[in-house]
Structures are given as C-alpha cells and as structure tokens.
C-alpha cells in the first residue's frame, strides 16, 4: 500500500544547509504538501514498476537497455560524408550538438537512426527512474553533453525526494551556484532551456524520443504524451509533470516580486483548466517560468485521471486501459476513495440480482482473491484513524468481499484456509459462513470435516468474549439446533414414516462428530476446550436419544440407526472424559448417567430387534422345516433380550432415567412450564396424514380432554396446535401450565413428566379419546423449559422430557418382554423370570403400573393370558 502511507520522512537535519538551496526547499515542500506528496508516490510507484520490468527483461532475454558500443553516438556516417567534401543542404555542416538546431539540418539517416535508438533507451531509463544510468549511457555513446543537459549542477539528482537529497550527500555545488544567482534562478533557466529545446526539436521534426526526453525535464506534456502508448507511461508523465510544476510554483512564490505575476496568470487560465494550448507569446523568457506549461497541467488529481480517460493528446490504448479493472482499482487508490473502490470491486464479484444464493461464489477468482486481500490490508493500515462512515463502509462492503472469497475457497476444497478470512468477518457473517459450510460437508469424509474443524478452532475464539467476533461455541450451537429441524419435504407414500424417521435420525446424529474431534494442542486452554466439547456432545446426544426413543416404538427389525451412530461416535471420547474434567465434574456426571442409561436402553432395543428379525425369518418357513440350530438361535436371542431388559427394569437404587435431585428449581414467583413439540400424525398402517385446520382444532380439543377440567383451570393449562410453517406434514404443539410442588417445583418423585408429560404421552401412544382412533403423534423435535409470566424461556425442564420417555419407553419395553416370553413358551422353553416381570409391573415401589395407558395395560393382560395358556398347554403335553 505504497500510495496510502501516512506521512513522509523529513529531510535529515545534517542536510539542511544554510543558506538553503532550491532542491532542499523542493524536498521540504513535498514533505509538507499532501498533493505533492501523493504525486511523488505515484511517480515512484510507476517508476518502480518500470524498473522491475527492465530487470525481468534482462533476466529473461539476457538483453539490457542501453547496451551500446563506445562512441556510437558521435555521428560517424556524417563525419565520413563531410570528409568527402560532399554538400547537401539537408545535412549538417558541423558536428557540434547544436548544429542540427542552428543549421536547420539533420545528420546522416544512419546517425539519426542511431541517435533515436539511443534516446529511446534514455527515455526508457528515465521512465524507470534510472537517471544516473541514462547519463552513463549518454557518456558511453560519446554524448557527454547530453548527460549534462539531463543532470545539471554537477550531476546532482534534483528529484524532489528525501532519497535523492540523501543520495546527493553534502554536495554544495548547487548552493555555490545559487549564492551568486539566487535560489531557483539556475533551476528556472534549466527548465526553460529544456522547454525551448523540446519545442525547437518538435518544430524541426526531430526525433520523437529526443523531444520527449527534454519535454520530461520541463513538464511539456504535449510532447511527452504522444509516445506514451500505455496507461502506466501516460500516468507517469502526467504525475511527474504535475509534481515538477508544483515544485516550480512553490519556488517562484517564495521569491519576492514574482508571486503576483504568476498568480495573475494562473487566474487567467482558471477558466479553461486542463487545456493543452501553447503559452502566450509574451511569456517566453526564463523569468516567467513555469507559465509556459502551466495550462497543460491538471488542477487536481481527479482532473489528471480524467485526462487519462479523454484527454486530447492521450493515445487510444491509454483510454482503453482506463476501462480495465486493474487500472480502475489503481485510479481509485490514487484518489484515496476507498469506499468507492470497495463498492467497485464488490460490483464485479457480487451475485446477480436474480440469484438469491449469497453463498455461491461469483466473479473472476483473481479478483476475488485481490478484493479479499485488499480489504485485509486496508483494515490493517487504516482502522485506527478511520472516520465512522469510512469505517462502516470498509467493514460492511469488506465483509461481503471476504465472505465471497471464503466461499470461493470452500468451492475449491481449501477448507483449511477459510478460518483465516472468516475470522475477519462480523460476528453474524462468520457464524453463518461456518454453519453453511458444516451443513454442506456433513456427509463428507472425516478428513474434510476435520479441516473445517481445525480452521475454526485455530482462527476463532472458542467462547464468545467479543461481540464483534464469532466463536466456535456459537457456531456449533447453531449447527446443533438447525440439525434438529425436520426436512421430510414432500411425503413419499412408498416409504413408511418409521423408515423416514430412521433416515432423518442418522442425519441428526452425524452432527455430533463435530464435537468428537480432538482440538489442536496449539490453542489456549486446550484441556478445558476438550472437556467442553465432550460435555456439549453428551448434552446434545441425550437430547437426541430422547427424541429417537420416542420415534422408535415401532416393533420392526430395523435398528434406530441414529442412536447407534451416536453411541459409536462417543465411545472413544468417553474414555477420555475422566482425564479432562475438573470443575465441571458434578454437571457432567448427570449427563454421563443419562448417557449410560440410554446406552443400556438401546442395547436392550437392539437385542429385541435382533430377536424379532430372527423370529420373522423363521415365520416364513414351516416349523417342520426349521432346523434345530435355527430354533436354538431364536431361543438364545429371546433369552438375551429378556435378561438385558430385566437388568434395566430391576434397577432399584438407580432407576432408569430418573431425574436427579441435584438441581431442584425453587422460586417465590409464579413459574410456568412449557413443552414445544413438532410431530407428524400417523395412521396405524404407518401412513402419514396431511393436517389441516380442522384436524388441528380436533387434536387440540383431544389433548385438553386428557385431563379433567379442574386440572386445566388450576394449572392454567394451555394447548396450541398449528400446522408447521416449514413443513406441511408437520404440526407444532405448544403446551403450557403453571409449576407446582412435585411438578416443576421441588423434587419430582414420580418421574413421569408431570402434567405436560401426561398430556403429550396420550398423543404419542395414540390414545386420545376425542380423536381419530389409533392415530399417533410421531415426534420430530421436543423441548421443555421453565418460563416466566411473559413466556420468555429461563432454563431447561429436562425432567419433563425424561419423564415422558419413561412413560413411553418403559411400558413398551415391558410389553416387548411379554411378547418374547410368549414366544419362548410357545417354543417349549421355560422362563423362570416371567413372574418377576409381573411383580415389577404390579409393585407400587417401581411405579411402572402408573406409566401404562389403558390400552397398554390391556395389551399386557392379553400377553399374560396368552403366556398362561401356552404354559398350561405345555404342562399338559407329557400327560397325553
């Protein structure tokens, strides 16, 4: 960012001569004047580019500008012509360097051609800021006089920069000259002489490079621009010319008697700025300098750039170049119009108006890369001293550019680099970007996902400590929350709802993998971060386990793949949990206990489904054709199912999914409980129902009727049922009631989910009295929390969902055990633990009977009847 540096180095004190010189005054003026300073930087920047291009050409081609034989510029052909005594009015008769101008004649064509080639190289070196090399070239070609005209005053570099001042050292040649003639007198004389030389050469149709070389010494733009056939050369010529004129005017103003004369002339030409007409004929002497070329110069930088677009003497290639993206960027940087520059870059890479996908990269990759890095550099350089509108523009438009480049990197599978750029985005954009990437890469390989994880971990803070920066915790919280949303789309009747729930559960479970990765050891507090990741994984897994359990009540062989995917993800991290938990141990233990409860439950569920699969396979074959091995396999699976289930059911000191009493909610004010559920209404056949407003009203009435009117009034029960705005096949159910002792306040001895659990369980089990018989509510998402009078959530009411799971899962587990018992006794096997199962249900201490609905209790009795009949038949067989 060469053009945007703040401040310029002051001339060293050692070089402040007394009396001063015109060069010292020029350098001091440029240091103090912002416009002159900017011109100086533009000139140095463009000369630097040209110099690098020369070096590259030398390296690649092996050639070098200015490679000449010694004395190749002394007009050998003209000498030979004159020695022969030949006479030609078009050929000079003398060999001094003034002869062509004085005699209005030319050298021999070969000499003239060689001179023009020499001066082309001199121009190239001057264009690259290599004045010393240009002078050396002239001397080596036998034209030391030309070197003196380019670098007067003993070869001093008169460029108005501190670098040139230091390079000249304590050379007092100019000081000695100006002590006699006055400051700036010889300076003006040299400029005026250069101007006269360039004009005279042009009048006699001399070489274009020769007149341009001398025009460059005196700001004579009309003779420089014709050979500037590219944007950089034309811009350099105009910037250098304007810089020199500013210096000349400053030196003129500092001299008494000349200020009024020049000021009046400037006022005369203000009416037609930028016109490249010749100066008035009356202003021809050196004392009037620089009025001869003043009307060729721009009044301000914007006028300079406008000349590049449409100036009279500008080459058409330069005008075309102004339309190139690179040149437009450079011109905006020159003007310092950073907000407009950012808008310009954004207009080149922004999505089309009809393209609503802001996450899809657009535009040229090089422009995307340039725009992003331009924003980063500008923020680094300018953030501290930006005014509010400028800062707002740099942050807002800059964020859009960086965001687009980050998406480009993502589309090219450079996930590891994205964190560098995302960390520079505003908080909400950073979070949105990572959430979008994580969702798109959810089904990618572990390697790809780990790159995104590392990118976020290394470049973003883990926890939110700065409102302006996104954090990993906020990102993962959004990802986890969004992953719980149902996305069935249009209901497919060819696949039953149970299978669709299975597939959806897998998508929900895979998200946990983001929390199971190992954070890099280079981040701060890596042990605490690892512990927090595992804790978050446990908490979210338990939420999903509850939902998966409520949708896996179907007695089918297919496993709930989402739950088992969760178990596999957390198997290894749980081994590390005891080594990483310190202060969080109490809170973690509660989540670990629930996780272990679910692991045991799904183990029972898996063995049951394994038995059911075997049973269904055997049912397809005649009992006479079944081998003894197949029968024994079915019996072994049944016994394993019963043994595991009884171990879970017989836990006395630590009942399955019973709420701990460590976190008892107590409040002096009225507290409410809320339960929000998204569900799909399913027929007994497994088909999905498309809800309408009538059905929602009927369901709401049916949910109210699950409890008495007194309970509704006393507990302020509120039920709302509506069609989901995101999915036409989903309904949203909101239950709300006041908390009371034993249900929301104090301990929860019954562990049945309280009032809200009772109401919702009836819908899940398909036993709503005033609703279509057999229709069940298949859960998609379930949340419960405490809330205040205004309905704002305060803290999770986990006991409600846990109790609801006990209401649904434990009776189903017992009924499955009864089903397996019947199968065992039918196969001729005796089951000693069957009576224990009956006692568990009947025992008041377990509270299992309280969890059964009337229909479930009826099914339990029917299974017991069938078991008893089969057992009696089995006992009677030997006596027959």
SSE inventory with pairings:
Blueprint lengths: L21 H11 L1 H28 L14 H8 L15 H5 L5 H19 L3 H10 L3 H7 L1 H4 L6 H7 L4 H9 L3 H19 L4 H10 L3 H4 L6 H23 L5 H11 L21 H4 L6 H10 L5 H6 L3 H11 L2 H12 L15 H18 L5 H24 L6 H5 L4 H14 L5 H14 L12 H12 L13 H14 L2 H4 L9 H26 L9 H20 L4 H35 L8 H22 L22 E11 L10 H12 L4 H6 L3 E6 L7 E8 L1 E2 L2 E2 L8 H11 L11 E12 L5 E4 L1 H29 L7 H9 L5 H4 L2 H23 L4
Parallel strand pairs: 4-5
Antiparallel strand pairs: 1-3, 1-6, 2-3, 6-7
Protein name: Nuclear pore complex protein
Subcellular location: Nucleus, Nuclear pore complex; Nucleus membrane
GO molecular function: structural constituent of nuclear pore
What does this structure look like?
The chain has 880 residues and is mostly helical. Strands 2-3-1-6-7 form a five-stranded antiparallel sheet. The protein has a two-stranded parallel ribbon with strand order 4-5. The longest helix has 35 residues, at 585-619. The radius of gyration is 45 Å and the shape is elongated. The model is unreliable at 271-283 (pLDDT under 50). Functions as a component of the nuclear pore complex (NPC).
């Amino acid at each position: 960012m060469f053009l945007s540096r703040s401040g310029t180095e002051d001339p060293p004190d050692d070089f402040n001569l007394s009396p001063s010189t015109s060069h010292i005054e020029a350098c001091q003026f440029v240091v103090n004047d912002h416009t002159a300073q900017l011109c100086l930087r533009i000139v140095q920047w463009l000369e630097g580019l040209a110099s690098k291009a020369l070096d590259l050409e030398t390296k690649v081609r092996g050639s070098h500008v200015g490679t000449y034989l010694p004395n190749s510029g002394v007009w050998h052909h003209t000498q030979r012509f004159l020695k022969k005594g030949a006479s030609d009015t078009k050929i000079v008769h003398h060999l001094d360097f003034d002869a062509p101008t004085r005699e209005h004649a030319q050298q021999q064509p070969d000499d003239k051609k060689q001179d023009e080639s020499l001066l082309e190289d001199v121009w190239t070196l001057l264009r690259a800021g290599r004045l010393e090399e240009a002078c050396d070239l002239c001397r080596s070609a036998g034209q030391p006089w030309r070197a003196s005209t380019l670098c007067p005053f003993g070869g001093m570099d008169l460029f108005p920069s501190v670098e040139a001042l230091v390079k000249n050292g304590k050379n007092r040649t100019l000081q000695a000259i100006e002590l006699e003639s006055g400051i700036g007198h010889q300076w003006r004389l040299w400029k005026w002489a250069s101007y006269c030389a360039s004009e005279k050469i042009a009048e006699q149709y001399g070489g274009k490079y020769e007149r341009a070389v001398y025009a460059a010494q005196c700001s004579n733009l009309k003779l420089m621009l014709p050979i500037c056939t590219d944007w950089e050369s034309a811009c350099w010529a105009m910037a250098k010319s304007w810089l020199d004129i500013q210096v000349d005017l400053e030196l003129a103003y500092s001299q008494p008697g000349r200020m009024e004369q020049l000021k009046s002339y400037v006022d005369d030409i203000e009416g037609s700025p930028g016109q490249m007409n010749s100066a008035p004929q009356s202003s021809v002497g050196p004392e009037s300098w620089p009025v001869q070329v003043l009307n060729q110069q721009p009044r301000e930088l914007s006028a300079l750039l406008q000349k590049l677009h449409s100036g009279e003497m500008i080459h058409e290639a330069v005008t075309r170049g102004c339309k190139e993206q690179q040149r437009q960027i450079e011109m905006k940087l020159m003007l310092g119009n950073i907000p407009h520059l950012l808008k310009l870059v954004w207009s080149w890479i922004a999505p089309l108006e009809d393209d609503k996908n802001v996450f899809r990269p657009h535009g040229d990759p090089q422009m995307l890369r340039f725009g992003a890095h331009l924003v980063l550099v500008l923020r680094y350089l300018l953030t501290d001293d930006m005014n509010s509108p400028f800062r707002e523009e740099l942050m807002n438009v800059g964020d859009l550019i960086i965001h687009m480049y980050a998406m480009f990197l993502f589309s090219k599978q450079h996930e590891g680099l994205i964190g560098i750029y995302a960390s520079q985005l505003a908080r909400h954009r950073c979070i949105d970007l990572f959430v979008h990437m994580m969702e798109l890469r959810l089904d990618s390989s572990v390697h790809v996902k780990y790159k995104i994880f590392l990118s976020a971990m290394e470049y973003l803070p883990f926890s939110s400590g700065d409102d302006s920066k996104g954090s990993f915790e906020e990102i993962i919280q959004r990802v986890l929350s969004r992953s719980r949303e149902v996305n069935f789309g249009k209901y497919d009747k060819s696949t039953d709802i149970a299978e669709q729930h299975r597939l959806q559960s897998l998508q929900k479970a895979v998200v946990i993998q983001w929390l199971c990765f190992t954070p890099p050891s280079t981040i701060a507090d890596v042990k605490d971060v690892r512990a927090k990741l595992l804790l978050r994984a446990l908490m979210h897994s338990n939420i999903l386990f509850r939902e998966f359990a409520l949708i896996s009540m179907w007695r089918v062989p297919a496993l709930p793949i989402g739950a088992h995917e969760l178990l596999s993800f957390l198997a290894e991290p749980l081994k590390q949990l005891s080594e990483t938990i310190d202060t969080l141990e109490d809170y973690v233990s509660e989540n670990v206990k629930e996780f272990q409860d679910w692991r045991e439950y799904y183990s029972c569920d898996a063995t049951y489904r394994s038995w059911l699969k075997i049973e269904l396979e055997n049912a397809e074959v005649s009992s006479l054709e079944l081998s003894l091995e197949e029968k024994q396999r079915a019996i072994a699976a049944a016994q394993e199912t019963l043994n595991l289930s009884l171990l879970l059911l017989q836990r006395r000191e630590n009942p399955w999914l019973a709420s701990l009493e460590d976190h008892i909610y107590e409040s002096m004010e009225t507290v409410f409980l809320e339960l929000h559920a998204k569900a799909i209404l399913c027929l007994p056949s497994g088909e999905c129902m498309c809800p309408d407003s009538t059905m929602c009203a009927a369901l709401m009435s049916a949910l109210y009727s699950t409890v008495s009117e007194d309970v509704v009034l006393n507990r302020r029960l509120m039920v709302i049922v509506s069609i989901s705005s995101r999915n036409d096949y989903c309904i949203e159910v909101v239950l709300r009631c006041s908390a009371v002792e034993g249900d929301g306040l104090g301990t929860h001895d019954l562990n049945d989910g309280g009032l809200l659990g009772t109401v919702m369980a009836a819908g899940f089990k398909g036993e709503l009295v005033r609703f279509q018989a057999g229709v069940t509510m298949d859960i998609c998402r379930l949340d419960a929390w405490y809330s205040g009078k205004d309905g704002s959530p305060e803290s999770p009411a986990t006991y409600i969902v846990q109790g609801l799971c006990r209401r649904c899962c434990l009776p189903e587990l017992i009924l499955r055990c009864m089903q397996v018992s019947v199968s065992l006794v039918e196969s001729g096997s005796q089951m000693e633990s069957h009576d224990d199962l009956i006692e568990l249900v009947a025992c008041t201490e377990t509270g299992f009977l309280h969890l059964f609905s009337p229909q479930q209790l009826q099914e339990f009795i029917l299974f017991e009847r069938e078991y008893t009949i089969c057992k009696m038949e089995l006992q009677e067989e030997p006596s027959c």
